[in-house]
Give the backbone structure.
Amino acid sequence: MTDQPTIRILLVDDEETLLEFLSKRLLKQGYTVKATFSGEEAVKVAQDAHFDVAIVDLKMPGIDGVETQKRLRQIQPFLQCIVLTGHGSIETALESGQQEAFQYMLKPVDYDNLIISIQKAYEKKMKLQNQEFKEKVAAITTSGMGAHGIRKAISELHKIYGIE
Amino acid sequence: MESNNSLQTELKRAKQELAGYKIELHQTRGYLQSILQSSEDIIFATEVGGMLISFSKGGEKVLGYTWEELVGRDIKDLAENPLLFQEFMSSSLQGGVTTHLDLPFRHKEGKSIYCNVTLINLTNREGQRVGTVGVCRDITLWKKLQEDLVQIDRLAEIGRLAAGVAHEINNPLAIIGEASGWAGMVINDAKDLNAEDRSELEKAAKVISEQTKRCRSITHQLLDFARRSEPEKTEFDVHALLKESVGFLKPELKHTSIEIDFDFMPGPLLMRSDPRLLEQVFVNFITNAIHAIKKTEKDKGRIEIKTLRTDSKAEISFKDNGVGIPPENQQKIFDLFYTTKPPGKGTGLGLPICQNIIKKIGGEISFHSEVGVGTSFTINVPLS
């Protein structure tokens, strides 16, 4: 992954031991990882740092996975969420947030499958984001601003879209 | 003259009395006859030694014999366990009436007939025993029903218990999986390991990962089994679904000489049911058929998938020319955790899950198997 930008992953699960090993593995493979142990913490973290993919456990004390991913996307609209569900709760999860999450995966999740989903989620995020970014850039460049104004507007766009 | 007269009156009285007794006897006999003819119970009488001297019509029906076949035979020889029956007979000699709640007789065709048996000692005026009368009520059906109920109850209980355990085990299982994956990575990167230790550790980490996956597949299957959600209803073509299911198993079929033969009724076979559940059943049956064929030394394996349609039902059958199921195993194949596969290969969940699914969508499974010839499973499911 040397040429690619690293994918920024936000992990949300109250099972701390699980996150410890999961984040170590993901870090080792070159992902940028932030582990959080509750929906509330994840929402707070997302206000300061940009992420590409969030992996959210459905069942957590406090706000649950479906609600967490909804709030995360209010802050970062392009963020793709993978929700991990226990068996049997997948139907309820689907009902309450079908359009919102990128994917629902059954726990315990298979690591290799998770990596594949992360890559796909990232691709989707970049596609959506680039599309809108291009539209916005096109809007700015055709707006009749001066060179200075354009540069300033675009750097603001960078900030909004989390592109550093 | 006078004594003659009194004798005459005496005789007349005796005659009248006798006529009265005759009527009474006739009535009693008629009464007994009607009981023996119309009762559905086995009612028999034996002489002292146990030899049959009377047998009710109901008894003939229950055990499949005619009176001509029974006359002169010993009652204990009709019991499934003559020794046990003899013992029961002897123990009943002390009391007047004895009851055994659950004693099996043997039907003429060999099946067991469970009876509630009451024996009554027949004695003459001097108090000597002259024989035995028995009244036996066939409780086979009731017993079967009872067993089925217990079985259903037990299955439901096992399901609930297993689901609970599986659910709780999933989280630690996830951690073991991640930790072993991490260990694998660390071993891979470690610099100061000699080759032998490295390969040992690599192998150990890999085995932990693999076995964790195995556990996960078991817990998922168990949770599927216990899941109570209602099946969905969508319209689909059974033929297309069958072809898809075979498609899933392409990797299994590779490097085998197994031929899949579709013998479909013409046109699509449309149905309103749960395609995902049915697909699970199809894949299971085809997988079992493949395994059964692989167990034989045959060069040419063949799986025939046939469909038929009646007014309201679809019949789908899977016939293989595999090893077949020995008769003694046939009644166990739907038991939870029953498997003939080596440890690690079969969970004993496949067929119980199939049966559960088919019941859920209102259908039935039947099968026929012969060792050395093959097995065919047939499912009948309502079209909507």
